[in-house]
Batch of 2 targets.
Target 1
Amino acid sequence: NVSALSGVPEWLPDHLQREGIEELYPPQADAVDAGVTEGESLVASVPTASGKTLVAELAMCASVARGGKALYIVPLRALAGEKRAEFEAFEEYGLSVGVSTGNYESDGEWLATCDIIVATSEKVDSLVRNDAPWIDDLSCVVSDEVHLVDDGHRGPTLEVTLAKLRQRNPGLQVVALSATIGNPEILAEWLDAELVDSTWRPIDLKKGVHYGQAIQLEDGEQHELGVRDGEKPTAAIVRDTLDDGGSTLVFVNSRRNAEAAARRLADTVESRLTDEERERLADVAAEIRDVSDTETSEDLASAVERGAAFHHAGLASDHRELVEDAFRERALKVVSATPTLAAGVNTPSRRVVVRDWRRYDGAAGGMKPLSVLEVHQMCGRAGRPGLDPYGEALLLANSHDELDELFDRYIWTEPEPVRSKLAAEPALRTHLLATVASGFASSRSGLLEFLDRTLYATQTDESGRLERVTDDVLDYLVVNDFLDRNGEDLQATSLGHTVSRLYLDPMSAAEIVDGLRAADDRPSALGLFHLASRTPDMYELYLRSGDSEEYTMLAHERETELLGSVPSEFEDRWEDWLSALKTARMLEDWASELDEGEITDRYGIGPGDLRGKVDTAEWLLSAAERLAGELGLEWAPAVREARTRVQHGIQSELIDLAGVRGVGRKRARRLFETGIETRADLRNADKPVVLGALRGRRKTAENVLDNVGRADSSMEGVEPEGSVTVESS
Ligand code: ADP
């Protein structure tokens, strides 16, 4: 019983009871027995929805009550806000909760005043690199979804960050929360932690596969669906669940598919809603529209009105919350979500459908099956404790063979063991430099000692491998002037410090430095976009058929603009170099004010991809500007200009105007066309002209004038000048 909890602050048991938590779930009780409220480190490998968050809360509150400070590491930025919102419930008892995301370089000093801090692993890594003063005050660190140490891209950061935090704070309590994995013992060994390894769930789960007319469950049970002519399997399942008074969570493999599925499944749901539900949903839709007036917001609201919604990391967190609440209340009957957020959707439902079990993988250049672990996490969302007899999670098969394959692959199979990905060179390049630069090691042996604290070292039997890769990477870092080596001793150069603080892959920095040094004339925007695009920090666009010829020609036409030597067509790096040129050309189109839709068509990408590349280019170019300054190269202004152009998607002449808050690329262009070319012009312009250029939107015009520092910004009674389509404000 929660009132018998020891080690926790005295308000906590009452608080839990008010939240409807009377008894600890068995794995939670095991965690308490293992000492999680007394400062013991713990690895909890427990199925989804079995109450891991409460284990973390018990540990954090107990640690804070003993005078400490807790850090909760989330895997995704989108989840940080959600966790903060959960922990804010403790504020009424005097705890303060802060979230740290955003810029890598911000110093995070205000966080020193918080009792509980929520941050992504990248953010924590960066705070450690920048020596945030409160890091030493931590007494408890929670690592959520710690099985992601297995992720090749982000795992090493989490691994190294935990190792650094433990090195800096001996006695630090680490609470690592994991999905059920094949080898939780190794995590416990690595972290010197107690282990709670449980398959207990608050409600039974039956997994199965849908094929043809029937659902086949793992316990042998079969269930006829009666799929109608022309009806998609997912729609049939949603209908069947609805007839039984339940709701369905559908996992698909991309944001776009999530949106399309919600739209389509709403057709199934709409006619089955009661008047009361319709009214409630109309309210939710109105709240969604209030959050923002973007296209996504409108798409979401119109699906919600009809009883369905989508959920992915591209949504505003307010949107996600509204969707989750409405789904929990059972007003929404279907939510289609992407796997990245499977962990974040704390919304049990009668049935879960894993519609897509393959996902596009950029690095592999094609579709890849999801891991057993991921699929089990999604399945784990099925079943509402206390409401359903059991939860049902279904995969969809298109053939009899696929039916068998899905049973073999996902239903009869245990989740994979996790494996450290640290020994890969790109990961080590970044982390070894950072480890030396931030003072965690100052010699080769010190580095190896540090690395000995990682999961990799705990896990590998191949002695010498890490040492070999380390030596290769050290050579690279010394040759490129990021580290000074003096016998055994290692020290970061000033360039090395800058690179580590900028959070750049050293190889990206080396590429940028070489490129800038190779320029004997002021580099053009295309040249700089290309330079940024060929670094390993940029995911390049792929070459499609016909692209090779097109971009080879472009390379010849604009050879003088491209920095450094042009590789020959027979070199290995040619293909990459050409992909980078295609990416650069796309960025140039964007910075030439080409329409977003036209760009996404031309390059065969989604608006989100364009945004992603633009953000990365902006970040890389601001790093390049810093590096140019650091090295005393004269091209910093040219880099800044290219950076500003890509940031706003504008030609040079709009740079002054587009910097005004509320003036994007389109508004800047329209203002410019009326003769308002600078901020000074805007401060003195005739109001009807400004209003005309801003399409009659009075509120917008007033904001813009306020932002540019004009005292009399009121647009009351002003009529827009020029032939404009007037939109309402
Ligand atoms: P996980 O993080 O393991 O996926 P959560 O921590 O999100 O799962 O918990 C799932 C749900 O179970 C939450 O709504 C939580 O409030 C509820 N819950 C957790 N522990 C208990 C408990 N001991 N008794 C009742 N409900 C609980």
Note: The chain has a mean pLDDT of 91.
Target 2
Amino acid sequence: IFFLLLFSKAFSQIPFLQKQGSTTQLVVNGKPFLIRGGELGNSTATSTESMKEVWPKLKAMHLNTVLMPVYWELIEPTEGKFEFGLYREMIDLARENHIKIVFLWFGSWKNSMSSHAPSWLKLNQEKYPRAKSETGQSQEILSSFSEAVFEADKRAFEELMSFTKTYDSKENTVIMVQVENEIGMLPSARDHQELANQAFKKEVPRELLTYLKTNKDKLVPEFAEIWKQNGYKTKGNWEEVFGKNLATDELFMAYFYSKFTNRITEAGKAKYKLPMFVNAALNRAGKNPGEYPSAGPLPHLMDVWKSAGTAIDFLSPDFYNPDFKHWCDLYVRQGDVLFVPEHAFDATVAAKALYTVGHYQGMGFSPFSIESKEKPEDEPLGKIYGLLANLEPLILKNQGLGKMEAVMLSKENPETILKMGKYELVCKNDYTLSWTPGARTENWPLGAAIIIQTSENEFYVSGTGVVITFKNAENPSLRVGLLKVDEGSFVNEKWKVLRHLNGDQTHQGRHVNIGTDSYATQRVEVYDYK
Ligand code: N0T
């Protein structure tokens, strides 16, 4: 009976976030959970009919979670009248397919714009004002300074969370929520509508100034620099404290976007307390505010976003540009967890999914437009998700505790050296082996591996396109040999050997190798010799 009670308790528990070592894990039904995700294209989840061919694709790629928009215009077609029939069906279908859902709240903002606001709201501009450009031209961007906009969004989001609680809190199919989508100002850096202009002339809110003072040494450098250049002022209006320029316009907007979104999040959580996050369309070097979707939860604005509220659990990046490590590093630098809710579904996603989990100890990964491939069963992402699924218990047990790493190896950067315990692992792209036919090819697929150290001399290596040699970092006079290398997988959490690897498969004991066309996990035992 005691176990039954424990069991049923775990199931009725709302998903929550929990610290483990250096990272934060999502706990679902009482157990840590890794998101092997994918985000649906914007218009796919508008009917169950159009989702029909999608579910098998998600299964074929071993997803355990789908990121699915909830469109304000569809749940509240008439003011105050809510319809959740579509989402009841979506939750039913997700359950049938054993797939979890992360809801994306396409509320007031979706890629800067307010395209998903219901028509009754769009048609009542008097009551629901929009952001204006410098010349006074209205944008299709609802103003974050309007309480009417806030109240309308809040009510709809509360309804969504109440519905989710009623329909799903026993099963926890819906495990997390993204609030709004890629908030940002474009093409005006700031809102020039009346309410906004009034706020701009007022004193910088004490909340932000207190945050600045309390966290003076921990601020992200890009932001600290702005404050410093203007003499670390702690009183005055926005231009007095931060200077008269576009950067200040952006800080101002970021604070009020965060305030609005934190209040929405708080209201939603009061109905049903799922973990909630926001996402950002990344900016580009050399562009000014207004030339990219400005004021969203971007790395240089993290402090501003955090200062305006704590209801939002974390900020996350969407990737449509190649500098993956650069941006991920910026998102984790204050100790926050990494979750990648969107990445263009290109040839690099398989490697990056591994890297997010293994190197950043991240919560999960999710390519965008996940339903877009004709042959999902051939996708490298699916193969890597299959490996992650098999290793999940081991990964989750080790996340954040300094025993897990990952590498991502390209033609340009074919080598990474890891230090794990007393060993140094020299990891290279498989094609660095000069005799492999691929070595002479133009394009090298990204090699990637996740490596978990389970005892001083035992490692699990999982991935594709890597070759690894071991060295003793503490005592270089000792050489390191491969004692035993097996390819296999976990069956009921017990390691099961498929093939014992030696001879050519380890280059007669010289290195561990997973070929470019294979996706595998190997258990490796090393030893030292004089
Ligand atoms: C993303 C997606 C969807 C080459 C774009 C990315 C999704 C939204 N926005 O397909 O609309 O809902 O979150 C914007 C970044 C584009 C940069 C293009 C640079």
Note: The longest strand covers residues 479-491.
